[in-house]
Amino acid sequence: RVTFFVVDEADRMILLGFWKQVKTVSQQIRPDRQCIMLSATWPPEVRDCSLKLCRESPVHVNVGDISDNIDDSDPFNREKQRTARSVKQEILCVPRCDKFYHLLNELLPTCFKDHDNKKRDTKVLIFTSGKKSVDNLVGCLRKIGWPAVGIHSGKEQAEREWIFDQFKGRLNTEDHSRASRAEAVILVATDIMARGMDFVS
Q1: Fold agreement between 1-89 and 98-193
Q2: Could you tell me the pTM of the whole model?
Q3: For 98-193, which CATH superfamily applies?
Q4: 1-89: CATH number
Q5: What is the pLDDT of residues 4-42, one digit of tens each?
Q6: Among the residues of the chain, which ranges form H helices?
Q7: Which of 48, 49, 68, 190 has a CB 3.0–4.6 Å from the CB of 152, allowing a cystine?
Q8: Calpha distance 127→188 (Å, rounded)
Q9: Is 6 helix (H, G, I), strand (E, B) or coil?
């Protein structure tokens, strides 16, 4: 009876090795289904899988900026994709052992340079690779005085909501309509959590 087959976070599913399971599920569904794949990136692996899942040539819908002066004949062209123009990106390559030093002495001071030190209406998101690294980094930051909280899949739903409230600035009271300045100015999260989080401003 399934007529719609939706694969969310397709690039992550394939990267983490779940393509075999996705393919198995697709084989149990009626052949005239409609397949939808959602992906933040569109590497060749995702493109190949989309061609295998779809019975007809897939329609590619791009959300966001597309580079100019690129041949539009190939909708899967990776060079067409670019970051939103309003996003400023800087890349700093450092040895793993120096990451925490650079975070404390370069990145965080830069984020707060136009504000009072650790001012609570300035917010910083830090993404890391795993649950353990989230907990370790939050512990280190809090130990030296930075108001930080961490979020990952190991947290219970009630704890996640409390963490988001701390970061977004809601008072920890029954009246969640009242807003205050954020209790935590730094939120540390696993990279997979980055896909589903959205904060105004």
Answers
A1: yes
A2: 0.62
A3: P-loop containing nucleotide triphosphate hydrolases (3.40.50.300)
A4: 3.40.50.300
A5: 999 888 888 888 888 889 889 988 888 888 888 888 777
A6: 10-15, 19-27, 44-53, 99-102, 108-111, 131-143, 157-168
A7: 190
A8: 6
A9: strand
